[in-house]
């Protein structure tokens, strides 16, 4: 048995890549970290281990609180945290979802190859930057009037399809078909709606991006064929969330929890774990508001997809349909959904919190779209501007090990403040273009510095652990061609 000590936290390796923090006073379950020794050394550099241990103090946590291989310090929960909590006797935690509700990623396929864009990278990156609003504040694709906001919040991609921004296949290739039916727009404050009103169809800032990539490697040909992926193909990755609306929803409900459940919070080791007891009016209100923000984020990514399709049509002088610009899949991060899982031989309804983690349902699961049910749900793992990304499929071990979850990205090694001390955005841009042939355009050099390749963990190692544990199997690898950021 291998032991790993990090300050006041001790972990024991119960099997390869599975490290356990034993249950102690106040913990309702043990905690587990899924990582190689190299990744665990990096995870231990910040407060991640204490945070995942703290999560076990929440009432109703089942089996284990889990930290995925890309884990790093977050707000209350670590980023990369998964906690499945009894939906009847437990609680729901806004801190276990985060401020950017349904920050997620989608991949759009094309029938273009890398040769089709070689030499035209600057033309394409400029056109995409002009077409897709980026950065802090307002600016979107549509006017968020009351009717539009109501439709987006209540119906998600169903509204986008009706409004002409989505195809029926887009809905079929999105988690939950792009709509949470439990959404209650009335539970979203007017302040939140006002913050999101002019942001529908925008990337925002921070780690959000739009990236044209080429498929460099295929690991499971049969699954890649089912996904419609092949070597040298161009694809587009879109990563963003619910913008100011989701942030305000989280803020509003954290404040209400602090006001209404002061005694409940007093029993938790960290105020940032703030949670509402399952079955309470506040829990139901938050769930309805969160689901509405989830729908908003799906519409946001769909409107960006619409702009990307139109831009490709203009640049390549071909209708986007003829360019094969179909949605592969859209996966959500930062989410807590009611799901039924087997726990100790019993089927239980749980609030599955995935804070910077991705749903990864295996082949045969009824919630996997019919097009992929025989091979498993597509999972998209972004890396960095200089390291590439991965497409996985939900692994056979995911339900038993992680409540159907895996990592959501490479995971940060360095804070944004430190990154800006270490890197200059202009240098990062020129180095990527000169040495990696990656063209980056952003609102500011500071944003590029914050997202320099060196601030992230090794995405290859994160994916290797996921694959070897059987929670997310490698299908294909992609590499950046052009990238736009806020």
UniProtKB/TrEMBL annotation:
Binding-site residues for Mn(2+) 1, renumbered to this chain: 100, 208
Note on cofactor: Binds 2 manganese ions per subunit.
Cofactor: Mn(2+)
GO BP, sorted A to Z: tRNA splicing, via endonucleolytic cleavage and ligation
Keyword Ligase attributed: yes
GO molecular function, one term: GTP binding
Annotated catalysed reactions: a 3'-end 3'-phospho-ribonucleotide-RNA + a 5'-end dephospho-ribonucleoside-RNA + GTP = a ribonucleotidyl-ribonucleotide-RNA + GMP + diphosphate; a 3'-end 2',3'-cyclophospho-ribonucleotide-RNA + a 5'-end dephospho-ribonucleoside-RNA + GTP + H2O = a ribonucleotidyl-ribonucleotide-RNA + GMP + diphosphate + H(+)
Active site per the UniProt annotation: 408
Superkingdom of source: Archaea
Biased composition (Basic and acidic residues): 175-197
Amino acids binding GMP: 207-211, 333-334, 382-385, 389, 408-411, 485
UniProt-annotated binding residues for Mn(2+) 2: 239, 333
Keyword annotations: GTP-binding, Ligase, Manganese, Metal-binding, Nucleotide-binding
Family: Belongs to the RtcB family.
Job of this protein: Essential for tRNA splicing and maturation. Acts by directly joining spliced tRNA halves to mature-sized tRNAs. Joins RNA with 2',3'-cyclic-phosphate or 3'-phosphate ends to RNA with 5'-hydroxy ends.
UniProt-listed PANTHER family: RNA-SPLICING LIGASE RTCB HOMOLOG
Subunit structure: Monomer.
Protein name: tRNA-splicing ligase RtcB
UniProt source species: Halarchaeum grantii
Taxon lineage: Archaea, Methanobacteriati, Methanobacteriota, Stenosarchaea group, Halobacteria
